[in-house]
Task: structure prediction
Amino acid sequence: MIVGAGGHARVVADALLCQGVEVRGFVDQDLSLHGTYVYGRPVLGAEGALDDEALVGCDLVNGLGGIGREQGSPLRRRVQERLEAAGRRFVGVRHPTAHVSPRAELAADVQVLAGAFVQPGARIGTGSVINTRAVVEHDCRLGAFVHCAPGSVVCGAVSLGDDVHVGAGAVVRQGLTLGRGVVVAAGAAVVANQNVAAVLMGVPARVRG
Result:
């Protein structure tokens, strides 16, 4: 079962189907989606639908994308942690066209999408997404619920704290550290450490404002 039925949910559903994984359906809080279908699979309702006896044993995949925030924390993290506290298990996604080195270490629920690369020595924490054609180079350390957006490049030996977002097409120079909650805007080039949560924009990237 996929939690969410929006754009990212459709992407992870496609990746799962390409893997040959059975997708039973979706749940989403958006009432307008209830009773609709994605790739022939139903949107069954809100999260409460997961309590149906036929679905209790299903693994979950986090289909919530982006960096939407709810009461200061990323929505993606809040929803997954709430369901995990209720005893549900989240599993990962690995698109068949992604390359993940056997010498990288990924948490069980990490999502690596089409054309992405994860190189040797990388360690990626729970809930993280390495999105379409993103690159995580050798010896990087990514915390929990990190999102590397499409086409982003995290160069070698970079450390990203929890809840970091690296925007589409952005580059983080080798050996840098970005602290928890840092957001790198699309197309930015990060060339210096940023230890305090902030939005980095531009080439070279600077704190917004």
Notes: The mean pLDDT is 94.
